[in-house]
Amino acid sequence: MNPGPCLPPAGKNRRTSARAWFARRRRTALAHLLRGTCYGIGTGLTGLVFMWAEQRLL
C-alpha cells in the first residue's frame, strides 16, 4: 500500500509535472467514474421499479 499521496513536485515545471501526474492516474479516474455511473443507474432503476410497483399495487 502506498504510504502517502504522490503529488507533483512544486517548481518551474509544475504544470508539466501535474499533467504527467494526471496522465498516470487517468485510467483509475475513469474506472471510478464508470463505477459511480453504474451505481447511479442501478439505484435510479431500482427506485423507479419500486415507484412503479407502489403505483400498481395501491
State the helicity in percent bands.
Answer: over 70%
What is the H/E order? H
Main sheet characteristics: none
DSSP summary, beta strand count: 0
Mean pLDDT: 84
What does the radius of gyration come to? 21 Å
Q: Separation of termini? A: 52 Å
Class from helix and strand fractions: mainly alpha
- Report low-confidence residues grouped into runs of 5 or more: none
How many structural units, i.e. domains? 1
- Our count of helices gives 1
* 3D shape: rod-shaped
Hey, roughly how much beta strand do the residues contain?
under 5%
Walkthrough of the structure:
- The protein has 58 residues and is mostly helical.
- The model has no long low-confidence stretch (mean pLDDT 84).
- The chain is built from 1 helix and no strands.
- It has one domain.
- It has one helix spanning 14-57.
Provide keyphrases for this structure.
58 residues; 76% helix; 0% strand; mainly alpha; 1 helix; rod-shaped
Provide the fold topology.
Layout: H1 14-57
Summarize the structure.
With 58 residues, the chain is mostly helical.
